[in-house]
Amino acid sequence: MSVAELEAVEVQREAPSGLWRDAFYRLIRNPGAIVGFIFVLVFVIAAIFAPLIATHDPVEQNLLLIANGCCPGPSADHWFGVDLLGRDLFSRIVYGARVSLLIGVVSVAIGFSIGLVLGAIAGYVGGIVDSVIMRLMDVMLAIPGLLLAIGIVAALGPGLKEVMIAVGLANVPIFARLLRGSILAQREADFVLAARAVGIRRPTILFAHILPNSISPVIVQGTLAMATAIIDVAGLGFLGIGLQDPDETPEWGSMLTEVNEYLQTAPFLALIPGTAIVISVLGFNLIGDGLREALDPKLRGR
Amino acid sequence: MRGKRGFAALVAASSLIVLGAAGAASNVTFIYAGASDPTYLDPALVSDGESFRIARQIFESLVALKPGTTTLVPELATKWRVGRDGKTWTFNLRRGVKFHDGTPFNSAAVCANFNRWYNWTGPFQDASASFYYRQLFGGFKKNESTGLGPPLYKSCRSAGRYVAIVRLNRRSGPFVPSLVLPAFAIQSPTAMRRYEANKGELVSGTFRPTGTYAFQHPTGTGPYKFGSWTIGQRVVLDRNNSYWGKRSPLARIIVRPISNNTARLQALQTGEINGYDLVAPQDMPTIRQNRKLKLINRPPFNVAYVTINRSKAPMNNILVRRAVAHGLDRAGVVRSFYAGRAVVAHQFMPPAVAGYEPKVKKYAFNPEESKRLLRQAGLTLPVKIDFYWPTNVSRPYMPSPNLNFAAFKASLERSGFEVRGVSEPWRPDYVKHVNEGSGGHLNLIGWTGDYADADNFVGTFFQSANPQFGLTRQGAHGVIAKLLDRAEAEVNQAKRITLYKRINRLIAEFIPGVPYAHSTPGVAVESRVRNYKASPVGTERFYGITIGGQ
Amino acid sequence: MLRFVVRRLLLLVPILVGLSLLVFFWVRALPGSPADSILGERSTPALVQEYEERFGLDEPVYVQYWKYVQTTVKLDFGVSSATHRYVTDEIKERFPATVELALAAMLFSILFGIPLGFFAAKRHGGLFDHGSLFVSLIGVSIPVFFLAILLKYVFAVRLGWLPSVGRIDVTSEVEHPTNFYVVDAIITRDWATLKDVLRHLVLPAIALGSIPLAIITRITRAAVLDVQNEDYVRTARAKGLPPQTVDRRHVLRNALLPISTIIGLQTGLLLSGAILTETVFAFPGMGSWLREAIFNRDYAVLQGGILFLALVFVLVNLVVDISYAIINPRIRYS
């Protein structure tokens, strides 16, 4: 075997596991990412196992508890206290995680899939189609996410579906740009040409080199998009332009809407849902940042 | 000697005190906060409470409500009677009254006002301009839109300087009571001409006057005249020293818009204002606990009710409607969520309005009876219904809609129903859906009266084929609707009252909806403010108020 | 240079046309009508129908759009269906409020963000560095409205140090010729009012500025880190220049380039944050105004207000681009 072929075999053997393993090791040594992971884990567990974790029915109203005005605080019976309609706040927070997770995942999925299609078309077809699509994406990017979501929900009407579409659409231009960039890059990348020149087979190139490099920004972006989605949904809920029945479907942001008037008497009504939002968003941001650092090719091998 | 000098000194001292008090009273300014700026100051062209609030100080009508009550008393008219045909109203007018611009108030002025409204054309006919005129008088001399009907008003003529004879096209019971509305106040024809009160336009679909009358020169006969209006900041009104009535103790009134509830309360607590309206329910305990402040009640003049939409099965079945009536825990809601400031309602008008019938059929909260009725109707329990309620709003008759809904849902579910609650923001979706009948089987809404007449309540709800309740003017509803037509056209007060009592009994049998509360909204003032008579209709005269200890 | 500016200015025209179309169709996509919002319980289907006719909503779309263009070009944005005031008059009051708030927020984020980022970079890897990164992360993770509620609760409700609502004391009777309250107070040398206005700005500005603060801290840190390792900096140090001079003359000045780009691009975030912040603090700016207008289906306000904001946004971006081109000559020729 020639030296070149030997090197090719070595590269082939190393490539698949090396990148991911490197990234993983770097990730678990990042304290921020660990903390973030814990936060997200708590969030996801709460969301998935909500019926098992919640102590009460989140929509059941117990008006006796607020017969003397708002609102009794945390107690043995109700760990987080009770809200304006006598509902257990702890259970509402737990089920609220479910709503946030659902909306987050669906809207990121919407953003990713539509973005993928648009980005792929723009990247492959190129030319005028590429320009038009990218201009459109620029216009959408120019409008801040929350405002775009407000506009879409106002036009479509309130409701869970509409909120998911609105937040999802706000994500489209980001993913479209990202994916278009990746697809363009793969055509011309030096390392691809080099790998081909050395004789490595196409599938190996694709899986060992191209995909990891294109997927990592997507993963990072996906995590960060989850964070933004949770914040945007909360914002919509807070403004009262969101879910159709905010008092029936617990949503953290809408829990904060009427609380303005009760800050004096029952501050926990605001502090608890708000903290839940912060913890979940922080978790995703920490993981996203950790992933970005871990997967950054510039840092590899340092 | 000393005795006499001492006495003289005492007299001198006391007269100084009295003079001082009188002088101090002459300089007193009363500062009041409302929730927003007025739209403009020509009351014939507005429909919002804040504009009416200003108008009530500047303008007067032919008749008025006795302060704090719903009793009709003379104001610019001293006597009135209707002719035998039931359509000709003769008003004897008060003498010696002048408008703020010095021109005399007389029958010519009265007719000039009636004719002004009647002769409106173009943009003035739009609902965003002459809302109340259209409501009460139906139409104009020349209607320019198909939404307008035949005009109630026919003509007005002077029979001498102080007698005005108004002829209507039909008999109308509510005609005189409705004149207490500031929209029908008598304004100075001279000033209106001079400052172009009849110039206006529709801009992007909304009316706006283009003359200066409505912004800088509203001219009436009231105890206060217009001083200045700084948009978004304050309206200043000065005492009318040539007022025909008793001189008001307040030299000046300033009305400020403060839109945030908490900010209004804070301004009162720090003494920067003397009083404010639209007290939020959660602030009431704070005010009551503060010795320096007091909460004044408006006499109940509203009704909170649950609509039952007959066009949505099974609500067309009277047994089901009765089940709903027995299934709502009205007393519970009133007790728990109105902070002691409401009474349970059993009919669609408050007790203070003539025609109120204490002996209507009452439906006590009885879950077993509800279930029995539903089974009798052949339905399987639980009966599934949609119950709509509004978010983002607090109404005087319904301070916390979410709480009312929650309690009603709970009591209905004990009574054989399964309730699916749907909430929508009050603006714009909820109001739209409820008013056009596309909401739920049951909906939470209410009404505050504009003037003291039964027609303003039960007439508004039940005279037409109102989609809120899915009414058709047929069958049982037809009977009620035709009785309402008769009552509206009845000019003999005693007969009207009898008719409305009968109507209220029939409504209680028919159950188009379930009324549940008449609430008393609150006004907050400093404790040293005396003689504040809060009106049921939501805005009152500040004339006659004194601020003690000043 | 001139060609660059002219080219960008010409681009404004299609952008504006596109924006007007977008706003026009969006407003018409809104379900519900102003009648219900205005009339409340007194609304009836007949009245709603009449309002729709009045608003010209029954005419063909292109006729409506043409009328819209004609009036907008004359800067006649119409009258608000809620207040019956001219939309332009309301913009004259609302826009300066939001501008003051936004500028205060930017000032806050720059004054704290740049030093934070700078020292974090200087003490790279140390506690301060990690601490500032953490603060920056929190800044992006707290929703603006929750931060606003927290600030309001701690500083206004509990401690009572600062006012909780509004732009100025409710009983103030001061005139506002320019509607920029801070400027007006300075011009008339009304120091009491100036203090009052500034006190009302503090909490909303901190809430609104939290996100730009986070971003500026990060960018500054990254930029300084990058520049520090550049050759010319090492040369300067090798020459024996005192560290402060090196920092000032070389590091900071060159780091400012990417930083200023970011600052210019914050306008969008400030706009969306403004809606939330103004709602919590009942601050009478464009944000709370437009939010009310959405609930009221106030077409005139929505069309005029949004178009106006979009125009401002586009112009600000234009200015940022031009100034960036001035600072960085390479951009001009692209």
Concise summary:
The complex is a heterotrimer of chains A (302), B (550) and C (334). With 302 residues, chain A is an all-alpha fold.
- What is the percentage of strand-forming residues of chain B? 15-25%
Order of helices and strands of chain C: HHHHHHHHHHHHHHH
Radius of gyration of chain C: 24 Å
Major beta sheet summary of chain C: none
How confident is the prediction overall: mean pLDDT of chain B? 90
Give me the secondary-structure category of chain B: alpha+beta
Large-scale geometry of chain B: globular
What profile does the largest beta sheet of chain B have? 7 strands, mixed
Please count the helical segments of chain C: 15
Unreliable residue runs of chain B: 18-24
Which of globular, elongated, flat, extended, rod-shaped describes the shape of chain C?
A: globular
Helical percent range of chain B?
25-40%
Task: Give the averaged pLDDT of chain C, no decimals.
Answer: 83
Alpha-beta classification of chain C: mainly alpha
The number of distinct helices of chain B, counting runs of at least 4 residues, comes to 17
Protein chains sharing the most extensive interface = B-C, 48 and 50 residues
Number of strands of chain B: 23
Number of DSSP-assigned strands of chain C: 0
Task: Characterise the protein shown here.
The complex is a heterotrimer of chains A (302), B (550) and C (334). Chain A has 302 residues and is mainly alpha-helical. Chain A is 72% helix and 0% strand. The two termini of chain A are 31 Å apart. In chain A, helix 1 (3-28) runs parallel beside helix 9, helix 5 (127-142) packs across helix 7 (160-188) and helix 9 (202-239) runs antiparallel to helix 10 (268-295). Chain A is built from 10 helices and no strands. The longest helix of chain A has 38 residues, at 202-239. With 550 residues, chain B is α+β, with helices and mostly antiparallel strands. Chain B has helices at 2-26, 49-58, 107-118, 131-137, 175-178, 189-194, 213-216, 261-269, 284-289, 318-327, 330-337, 367-376, 401-413, 426-436, 458-462, 475-489, 493-510; strands spanning 29-34, 63-65, 72-74, 77-82, 88-93, 153-158, 163-168, 200-203, 206-209, 224-230, 234-239, 252-257, 275-276, 293-297, 302-308, 342-344, 383-391, 417-425, 442-448, 513-519, 522-526, 529-530, 546-547. Chain B has a 7-stranded mixed β-sheet with strand order 10-11-12-1-13-21-14, sandwiched between helices. Chain B has a 6-stranded mixed β-sheet with strand order 16-20-15-19-17-18. A 4-stranded antiparallel β-sheet of chain B has the order 4-5-7-6, covered by helices on one side. Chain C has helices spanning 2-29, 34-39, 45-54, 61-73, 87-122, 127-141, 144-158, 181-187, 191-228, 231-239, 243-264, 267-281, 286-296, 299-327, 329-332. By secondary structure, chain C is mostly helical. The mean pLDDT of chain C is 83. Chain C has 15 helices and no strands. Helices cover 77% and strands 0% of the residues of chain C. The A-C interface holds A 32, 139, 142-147, 150-151, 154-155, 157, 227, 231, 234-235, 238-241, 253, 256, 259-260, 263-264, 267, 270-271, 274, 277-278, 281-282, 285-286, 289 and C 18, 26, 29-31, 134, 137-138, 140-146, 149-150, 152-153, 157, 268-269, 271-272, 275-276, 279-280, 291, 294-295, 313, 317.
